[in-house]
Amino acid sequence: MAREHVEVAVLFADVSGSTRLYETVGDDNANRIIGKTIDVMAKITEMYQGYVIKTIGDEIMCRFSSANECVRAAKEIQEEISQGIQGESIPVKIKVGLHFGPAILMDDGDVFGDAVNVAARMAGIAKGDQIITTEETIRKLDPDLQDLSRQFDKTNVKGKEEEIIVYQVVWETSDDVTRIEIVSAPEAEEIKYLLLEFQGQPIRIASNDNRTFVIGRGVQSDLLCQTRLASRTHATLEFRRGKFLLSDQSSNGTFVKTDDGENIFLRRQELMLWGSGYLSLGEEVAEAGDDLIRYTCE
What we know:
Blueprint: E1 3-15, H1 18-25, H2 27-47, E2 51-56, E3 59-64, H3 67-82, E4 94-106, E5 111-112, H4 114-125, E6 131-134, H5 135-138, H6 143-146, E7 149-155, E8 164-169, E9 181-183, E10 193-198, E11 201-206, E12 213-216, E13 223-224, E14 235-240, E15 243-248, E16 254-258, E17 263-266, E18 269-272, E19 276-281, H7 285-288, E20 293-297
Parallel strand pairs: 4-6, 9-18, 12-13
Antiparallel strand pairs: 1-3, 1-4, 2-3, 4-5, 6-8, 7-8, 10-11, 10-20, 12-14, 14-15, 15-18, 16-17, 16-19, 19-20
Helix pairs in contact: 1-2, 2-3
């Protein structure tokens, strides 16, 4: 079988929580919903000059010659699916992982190699409503798409000696999507734990957890806050350089009020947390009532 060494963008997209979907609506209904979802993703792939390599259960694998077209297709998939599947009342969430890099293209259209392995790893990191990719891919994008990206995590990939820097592409519509800027915070001793409390629910995050903690109204959030102004993925927390970094990803912003009197508003920005205080999703701390998130750095 003939093979060709190429550089391609590989995209994996699958239905998040499909096991629960089967349990909730039954096999026949779940199969129908997933089938319609796959059809939508395949049509969008072709709209952006992509090629559907295969579908496996609730997952689709595609390739594109351009990183730009791949990311634009991923955005379109998320935007289209978020509006609902035609004729279905059950909401569906999609997680997307993609990467642009070297691969071996077979004459039957299939691809193997580095681009596939890394894209699959990105898909494994993604949660529902997310598009996850690599720094290498972001560098290949046009400026308008780069402006929608933010550093999300670091991870190891089999066959790679160094960690890969992971990015998220923010696709939710906002009139003021900008590059995330870091809001400065006072210098403080290194923090080992971040304690959160929301509506009586305590959560303790350790500095060595090595993961990104998601706050939002999306059902797969680590801290589920189904408040009226929260976004699906409203904000994230991760440990970086001895402190916990709060990153706003929302449409309405995140309000921070520290116990030492600082009031900070984040919109597509990041803040190194210190001391203790309150977080409010989308509205002023004074107006949030029982929807406040209490935080304490230890």
